[in-house]
Amino acid sequence: MASKDQQADRKGEEITSKPGEHAPTDTEFGRREAVEHLCTIRDLMASAEERVLFEPWALYMWGVVVFVATLIHAAAAATVEIAAIALAARVWVPAIVVGSFCELIAWKQALEREETPIFAKRFLRLLFSFLGVFVVLVAIVLWMFAQGALSPGVLLLCWSLAVLILAHASYLALFVEGYIGLAVAIIMLAAGFSGTAAYVAVGVFAAAMFAVIGAHIQVLMRKSSS
């Protein structure tokens, strides 16, 4: 009579092998496990690449800041006698400072959540790339504004570029919002929209899209963590 161990071995062979095929050897089992481990590591690395160093609430805050600053700028332009560039500086410099302060807090929280050192290469690469892009965009906007050539469509193009950079550094799905902004900007340029109403429309659109991006990131974070 066969022992229980022998019977278990036979059952294992029946399950793991088909008629006419030999049972997998220990070497083959080892290769399968190695392939499975490599696939798991690849999936973990892919998901890690899409982890963002942003908090959704910071994007909501940017939306609020942009919306309020847009309304203040439009109201002041209609009621206060002041040079356009001076008015823009008085409204948008404080708005950028407030938004940047909230962003720094959010980055600190994200670093703690991801347990990422502040001097990690990925963090520094993201930080310096964003700072460089931000400085370039601000310089372009200020120069065009001083030349009187800053149309609402160009302003929205600059905003769309920032969103595309964000998508490149985080979730692939965020390219949707970036290309939506790009499409709207091209339409505005082609149609020749200008004037106070067009600038207000751009500000409100950007504020709404900040909220949409924040909600989108929140959904993607939940999916990646589940």
Brief summary:
With 226 residues, this protein is mainly alpha-helical. 81% of the residues lie in helices and 0% in strands. The protein folds into two domains: 4-47; 54-225, no CATH class.
Describe the structure.
This protein is mostly helical. Helices cover 81% and strands 0% of the residues.
Number of domains: 2
Q: How far do the termini sit from each other?
A: 50 Å
Task: Please report which band the strand proportion falls in: under 5%, 5-15%, 15-25%, 25-35%, 35-45% or over 45%.
Answer: under 5%
Summed over residues and divided by their number, the pLDDT gives a mean of: 78
Residues in helices, as a percent range: over 70%
**What is the count of β-strands?**
0
**What is the general shape?**
elongated
Q: Structural class from helices and strands? A: mainly alpha
> What does the largest sheet look like?
none
Q: Low-confidence parts lasting 5 or more residues at pLDDT below 50?
A: 8-18, 44-50
Number of separate helices: 8
